[in-house]
Write a structure and sequence with these properties.
The protein is of the alpha+beta class and 146 residues long. It has a single domain, classed as Chemotaxis protein chec (3-Layer(aba) Sandwich), CATH 3.40.1550. The chain is built from six helices and eight strands. The longest helix is centred in the C-terminal third of the chain and has 13 residues, at 120-132.
Length: 146
């Protein structure tokens, strides 16, 4: 499972090194391939196997629902497979870098079966809001049975 967070540097070509602990999870539980797509204010990276589960679930939803189509246009159409180079880096395509406002410093944050890729300034904002609302967040999780 992907857990923890770390700061990384996006190079001039748009490549980022994936932490060795995340690479080990990919090698041990999955294969060494990632699907990266748009999320709210960041990007999200899935091992191919986890991504295929998402596609299967989305394929079962009604294509005549406007919200389903809107989600697919944003989430699925933005997805791209990113392969590792010999140095353990992936190239994040320009449209995804733009969506995530990725510049130099980025945060990789484990999310159990995936990990998020954040611009450091946006991450700092997000964590501040989460911290301020933590009591409400834990209350909601409690209602969900966590």
């Amino acid at each position: 499972m992907f857990r923890g967070r770390s700061v990384h540097t996006l190079d001039a070509k748009g490549r980022i090194r994936i932490p060795s602990r995340f690479r080990e999870i990919l090698k041990r539980r999955y294969e060494d391939r990632l699907i990266i797509t748009n999320l709210d204010r960041c990007l999200i990276a899935y091992p191919l196997l986890e991504w295929e589960k998402i596609e299967e679930k989305l394929g079962e939803l009604s294509v005549v629902r406007q919200d389903v189509k809107a989600f697919q246009r944003f989430f699925i159409s933005g997805a791209i497979e990113c392969n590792f180079d010999k140095q353990g880096r992936i190239l994040i395509p320009q449209p995804l870098r733009e969506h995530g406002s990725l510049e130099r410093e980025v945060i990789l944050a484990g999310m159990v079966r995936s990990f998020e890729i954040w611009s450091k300034p946006l991450w700092d904002e997000e964590i501040k809001v989460s911290h301020e609302n933590f009591a409400q967040i834990t209350s909601t999780l409690s209602e969900l049975g966590f």
